[in-house]
Amino acid sequence: MLTSLFILVAVVAVIWALAYHAADAGLWTVALGAGLIGLSIASPLPGAALVVLWLALIVFGVIGNIKSIRRSLLTAPIFKIYKSLLPQMSQTEQEALDAGTVWWDGDLFSGKPDWNKLLDYPKARLTPEEKAFIEGPTEQLCSMVNEWEVSHERYDLPPNVWQFIKDRGFLGMIIPKEYGGLGFSAYAHSQVVMKISTRSGTAAVSVMVPNSLGPGELLMHYGTPEQKNHYLPRLAKGLEIPCFALTAPDAGSDAASMPDVGIVCKEMWEGRETLGLRLTWEKRYITLGPVATLLGLAFKCYDPDKLLGGEVDRGITCALIPTSHKGVNIGRRHFPLNATFMNGPNSGKDVFIPMDWIIGGQSMIGQGWRMLMECLAAGRSISLPAQSIAAGKFASMATGAYARVRSQFKTPIGKFEGIEEPLARIGGHTYLMDACRTVTAAALDMGEKPSVLSAISKYHMTERMRLVINDAMDVHGGKGICLGPHNYLGRAYQSVPIAITVEGANILTRSLIIFGQGAIRCHPWVLKEMKAARENSVVAFDHAFWSHIGFTISNAARATWTGITGARFVPAPACEETKRYYQQMTRFSTAFALLADVSMFVIGGSLKRKEKLSARLGDVLSLLYLMSCALKQYEDNGRQKDELPFLRWALYDSAFKLQVAMDGIIANFPSRIVSLMLRVIVFPRGLTLTQPTDQMGHEVAELLIQPSAARNRLIAGIYLPKDENDLIGKLEAGMHAVIAAEPVEAKVRAAKKAGRITARGTEAEFEEAVKLGVITDTEHALCKRARALQHDIIMVDDFDKHFGKQQVMSEKADEGLRHAEAAE
Ligand SMILES: Cc1cc2nc3c(=O)[nH]c(=O)nc-3n(C[C@H](O)[C@H](O)[C@H](O)COP(=O)(O)OP(=O)(O)OC[C@H]3O[C@@H](n4cnc5c(N)ncnc54)[C@H](O)[C@@H]3O)c2cc1C
What we know:
The chain is an alpha+beta fold. Helix content is 62%, strand content 8%. β2 and β3 form a beta hairpin. α1 runs antiparallel to α2. The longest helix has 29 residues, at 417-445. The chain is flat and about 105 Å long. Bound molecules: flavin-adenine dinucleotide. Flavin-adenine dinucleotide is lined by residues 243-247, 252-253, 285-287, 336, 343, 498, 501-502, 505, 507-508, 511-512, 611. Residues 243-247, 252-253, 285-287, 336, 343, 498, 501-502, 505, 507-508, 511-512, 611 line the site of flavin-adenine dinucleotide (FAD).
């Protein structure tokens, strides 16, 4: 009996081990055969049961090992069902899926990320020239802009600032040097946008757009040599201001459904009959549109008279149109949440353009969607993430400093536990965001165009920007609310929804894109299965499908084992402080791969409509990516122990959110039985991860409210003027001054408590303290300076009661009176 039990346990252990290591059919057959021999010799199992087991093994052995038999008996019928269930994909969906590359996201989907590979990827670096540009013209540009003046008085950047932007090449950062551009890396581009964003959202967006999805990038990748030679040098030097118009009133998130058309026709052009397009369009929300000289336009091309031969419906196409061209209506403005970068609608009716205005020429008709998707794949991970981390870094600097400068109840507010909570979130999220930005930019500089990771960066960075700005606002209280030249947060707060909406609105990105695209692009087998179905190749399908089954079984075994053991035996990079995080992440990567597969197997094509599940699966993938970036950043920074509080908080917070997302997937899984099984496999010991502790939050908050090397690294790259006449310069100086004054103030307080100082009023108390020798003149001067800075920092603006619009207001009042009289 004992022997039989031993053999049974051994068989189960071997099966588990084989599943864990995704053994091939041959090994399975040998191992199971050995187990059955053991059972046959020692087992008291009835003979009939043994016969059934042997027969099952023979069937398994034949089907598993003789591919031709497996293909015809098993794979072929499955292939038939698979093809009938595979949802039809439109050309635009297919092109979106095909865009870009798969990078670290592929490893995360594998369930077995190779951490050393991640750590070996080169660190993001600036060339001396890029560094000089950031420390030179970029700093200078920041010093030239006053965002209040821009956003409230001028509603535009001043002419000298526009000129500086053009002259110094800010609009051509991504254009290669051979065309007169700066030819910067993605990382340098991100650093520039980040720095400008910490000074002026308007200037940052004006610089961002020509460098991200727009005519410049499209021309570089797809333009004809003539188009490149003509436009790129002009764009690089700011002789052309570009915009790109995709969005239409009826086609926002679903931009591919645009009603804008280009009809292939022949018309007289420059004195001769010319083949071209007659365009009719109505676009809105187009950034830089009102000042653009060059309009990039996406439309659907039709050839009803078959002038090109072939199809009538030719697909989405992109063209470049000078805005001075007859029939182009451009120049009116939208007013997006008080942000005063140029943004507006444009339209045209029956506007003729020659074929060579199509980007890439006539041969690129119908390629527009692919072009846009491919450019978006990279661009999405630069501009908006840079703007978001700018918000994080700025909030860390300003909120930390303000929380030290602002005292209530005789205590700097940053020392209250209630304020420590938002400060911890600001610091922790900022560390994570910076890591994500830096690691993703480095990937782009290695030549990757990671479409899924770009969507993750865009979504998670802008969402975290929202969190940190909200927290910063709360810590600043009324100081953040009253707009005016002394408010350095309000405009950022107002602008957050813009970043959330543009370049793929966030709800859509989370619900549909991240996992939807990721599951197909990054999964080791799904795309191969789909390709096999498209090519009707049962041989390719056989390989992909059975490998996929093996992969899923292996992940189930690995998830259970790592769940039970807390992943303690999983290999991880040798770093005392971070080893456990790597191990836990391997565990969750495995569990994620399993959840993704089970979701696809059980829910199939309708998973696309199960957006809440898809969103949570996307959250898990995203959090794994963000945590990977944080760990890599820690390594790339040389394992600086003083930044561990940031790292720890960020990883605990992310891991807890990841657990919530996984729990949500399992709890809401449509099949109760599968849900129960998944819970046992993924969380065999229950939900064991906790949120960051209060102590962890305290350590982060402490780092933000005083100067330190770790704080400097966290906020590195922002515009931080040394000039105390500048509000931000004053804020940082104020923090230093207040900290220096604290021990002196303590001496005065102690003397007062001891009854030595009897004067009333701050100034009188300090003067008496000097007279009594409690403090020195120098110390008194130090405190005076701190109080003066403190006062300036906490003050807000006030205006005359008509906000300087007395004339307008009295006219409106008269008009109202006239209406009232007329009504009577
Ligand atoms: C300031 C600003 C600047 C812009 N600049 C440009 C530009 O330069 N060029 C350009 O072409 N466009 C530009 N846009 C357009 C921008 O890309 C669109 O606003 C965006 O694509 C969303 O479209 P929409 O505003 O019409 O929202 P809608 O498409 O109406 O979406 C509304 C909401 O529904 C959600 N949603 C939609 N479909 C789904 C779904 N299937 N599942 C879940 N949720 C869904 C969205 O996430 C969003 O939250 C700009 C917009 C703004 C506001």
